[in-house]
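Summary for the steering committee. The consortium agreed at its last meeting that each partner would contribute one worked example illustrating the joint modelling workflow. Our contribution is presented below. We chose a case with several input lines so that the handling of multiple components could be demonstrated. No manual editing was applied between input and output; the record is shown as generated.
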Amino acid sequence: MPELPEVETVKRVLEPRLRGLTITNVTVKRPEITAYPNAEEFCRLVTGQIISHMERRGKFLILHLRSHDRIILHLRMTGCLLLTPADLPEEAHTHIIFSLSGSPESLPALELRFSDMRRFGRFWLLRENEADTYTGIGKLGIEPFDAALTPAYLQARFGKRRKTVKECLLDQNGVAGIGNIYSDEILFTAGIYPARPANSLKQEDWERVAAAVPERLTFFTEKNEITSEDYLQSKGRNYRNTPFFQVYGRGGQPCPVCGNKLRRIVVGGRSSVYCPDCQKSEEA
DNA sequence: CCAACCCCCTGAACGC
DNA sequence: TGCGTTCAGGGGGTTG
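What follows is the complete predicted structure of the assembly.
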């Protein structure tokens, strides 16, 4: 499910509450979820470790441990991370449970639970200084809020490619964190037809894309803001920014800018919605 | 290098 | 009602 704004929201909700907690036990119910090392080894290495802080990189979450080992995870399509009192019933499709200690004694014991209906999500554990040849984080492109995200960067990276501009935005090794929803939203804001070949974009087009990427991702991240109580209450699935989508999932409805009908097409195998009038296939 | 497929999984929505 | 098909916001792998 989640793209950068959702992963960032998970990080913002959980990070302050996880800091300093000790992982006293780990239960892995579906061994395939731990991509590296194997489930048994994963549990052995994680047990007893203390969480220092949490980070997001692209759509990955990284739990930094005080030992400088780190737990890395990717939610993929339906993964969900919940910090919950240990006595609450488990969500369906709960595959990994981290028992935690260290919260104030007045509060009930906590668990960090990973549930994932489609089981595409993955966990990794990397020891301090262990080379990361497993997760793909090392190949990720720049963060969307990095000052390095300039029109020149995009043009240099994608300007000669024949693939569509939408596929370029989805390429995690160019800019990390954009998925199918926000690529549509970004291209709508930039006024660019999603199936346009990247090598047909002009300087001014890349300028609009470079501006729209951080602007839209910031906007949708802020719309997702949620208290940790509401986050838990909604099972981590209350993405409150969805009413603010301008085009995603709105094929056939009126364009929020010009009122003409939004159209749905397939680009790079992904469903894509755009406004034929606001996003011309060629610049005038 | 690239495009065009395949795979991983479950569940919701839709058509007949 | 039931059954089959299609689709879903993630990524990776193989083939030609």
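Chain A has two domains: 4-139, 151-274. Residues 203-223 of chain A form the longest helix (21 residues).
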